[in-house]
Specification:
Blueprint: E1 2-4, E2 11-16, E3 23-28, H1 38-49, E4 52-58, H2 60-63, H3 72-87, E5 96-101, H4 103-115, E6 119-123, H5 138-142, E7 148-153, E8 167-172, H6 182-198
Parallel strand pairs: 3-4, 3-5, 5-6, 6-7, 7-8
Antiparallel strand pairs: 1-2, 2-4
Helix pairs in contact: 1-6, 3-4
Protein name: Alpha/beta hydrolase
Keywords: Hydrolase
GO molecular function: hydrolase activity
Length: about 200
């Protein structure tokens, strides 16, 4: 466990090393949850089997014990401070995939270019607040210019992203929690990570 100074307080990083050197995967948590969410655990295992080191990132508001998430600009700034830290440390010189679940996926999309990510992994991307299709966040996904994988529950009340050029969408049984089929999450993530990191070897 490592603490990383950010403009909005310390973030916390858990590094899970892999045997290979295919790349690094930086994953963020959802708005109200932690890095022990079932889909993040499944993705971490799959990434390590694919030869990627995984850094699980707790945002400063969670480290400080607050439940309500920080504003988007603060989340993004803290995330990029962690990216800088891991790029000069554990993940130096490796192709970096960024991602997360729900709110963490949004952060990864918004910061993909600034982070120098080679790809973005979105677990349960919240397309819109439940019942409010007019308040969609599709522009965050559409703005990513590197390959994107979205793993989404078929009954996710936060909506369902659509496939597009450079963006794959895998639908699994279950809802926004993605806890119904962790093996499915692992299969989708592992196969995709091998593809996108293989292009940078």
């Amino acid at each position: 466990m490592q603490e990383v100074a950010t403009p909005h307080g310390p973030a916390r990083v858990q590094l899970h090393s892999a045997d290979g050197t295919a790349g690094g995967l930086l994953l963020g948590h959802g708005a109200g949850g932690g890095v022990d969410a079932p889909d993040l655990v499944a993705a971490t295992g799959a990434a390590r089997q694919a030869g990627l080191h995984v850094a699980l990132v707790e945002q400063p508001y969670r480290v400080a014990g607050r439940r309500a998430p920080a504003p988007a600009a603060q989340l993004d700034a803290s995330w990029l401070a962690v990216v800088t830290a891991v790029r000069s440390g554990q993940l130096a010189g490796l192709p970096l995939v960024t991602g997360g679940r729900s709110s963490g996926a949004r952060v990864a999309c918004r910061t993909a270019a600034a982070a120098g990510a080679v790809a973005v992994l979105c677990l349960a991307f919240p397309v819109q607040p439940p019942g409010k299709p007019d308040k969609h966040r599709r522009a965050e996904l559409d703005g990513v210019t590197v390959p994107v994988l979205v793993v989404q529950g078929e009954r996710d009340l936060f909506g369902r992203p659509e496939s597009a050029a450079g963006r794959s969408v895998v639908l699994l049984p279950g809802d926004h929690s993605l806890k119904a089929d962790p093996a499915g999450v692992a299969r989708a993530v592992g196969g995709w990570l091998r593809l996108v990191t293989g292009e940078h070897r």
